[in-house]
Amino acid sequence: MGSEECQTLHMEGNNYKVLQEHINKLTENQSSIITKFDVLTKNVDDLRKILAQLSEKIVSLEDVAMDRRKLKSEIKILKTRIDELYAIIKEGKEDDSLPSDDVQDVESCHSGFSCSSKVTMTTGLDRDTIRSAYEDVRSDASPTEWAVFKFDGARIVCSARGSDFTEFRTQFSDDDRAFGYLRLQMGDEMSKRKKFMFVTWVGPNVSVINRAKMSTDKAIIKDIISNFAVELQLESQAEIDIDQFKDALNRAGGANYGTGVRDL
């Protein structure tokens, strides 16, 4: 066999190898697309079920008198669940950050709505410690100027209290979801006054689903922590800055008792 023929066979062998690699890659991509499509289909089905539940609930209200405040709360919870499912669909995959112990099969979820799919457990509150910390920060007789609330499994608990702002900054890591309540002294020597702030922390490493759940979890804790002048959503350590906090309080003026949100 001549050298030219050997060279030709060698080139054909290399081309075949490259072609085979491309085929293998395409096969892997096809499998990945099929898997993601199956996940999307499942979550779209879940979304349709929840929308149907919402429709049925509204229809049933035509025959049953219900307190408007309760109705508003229940619809808000359903909307949040829909947002969570939408986040799954947008991400194109299941959320793997939650351990299996944090999900459960339930016949009903959130205020009596029928819900056959697996959902994250309803967040609970350690009400006594949260209320105690809230009142401690608000008390003029207490040196405590801040409290931080974090997730312990499926419950929100008071994780720390203190008076040093530097220590407050250390309470929030990139993997955390948390809430903070602060008392800051504003004004000058002629007019000193205390103002209060509520912050929501979502670290950059928090998953899409846990980010989506924060709107519901925040509404739960604000049943207790209700009096503040400014609410801030924080997502980076650079935003935990006392000068920026005071600037936001100065711009806010009077207390809004939780009716507004300012993003830094």
UniProtKB/TrEMBL annotation:
Q: Name one Pfam family in it.
A: Cofilin_ADF
Q: Where in the cell is it found?
A: Cytoplasm, Cytoskeleton
The ADF-H domain extends over 122-250
A GO cellular component entry from the record: cytoskeleton
Which GO molecular function annotation, any one, does this entry have? actin binding
Task: Give the residues annotated as coiled coil.
Answer: 37-88
SMART domains in the record, alphabetically? ADF
- Keyword Secreted found: no
User: Keyword Cytoplasm, does the record have it?
Assistant: yes
Q: Keywords in UniProt for this one?
A: Actin-binding, Coiled coil, Cytoplasm, Cytoskeleton
Chief location: cytoplasm
Superkingdom of source? Eukaryota
What family classification does the UniProt entry report for this protein? Answer: Belongs to the actin-binding proteins ADF family. Coactosin subfamily.
Its annotated function is as follows: Binds to F-actin in a calcium-independent manner. Has no direct effect on actin depolymerization. Acts as a chaperone for ALOX5 (5LO), influencing both its stability and activity in leukotrienes synthesis.
Q: How does it assemble?
A: Interacts with 5-lipoxygenase (ALOX5/5LO) in a calcium-independent manner. Binds to F-actin with a stoichiometry of 1:2.
Question: What is the name of this protein?
Answer: Coactosin-like protein
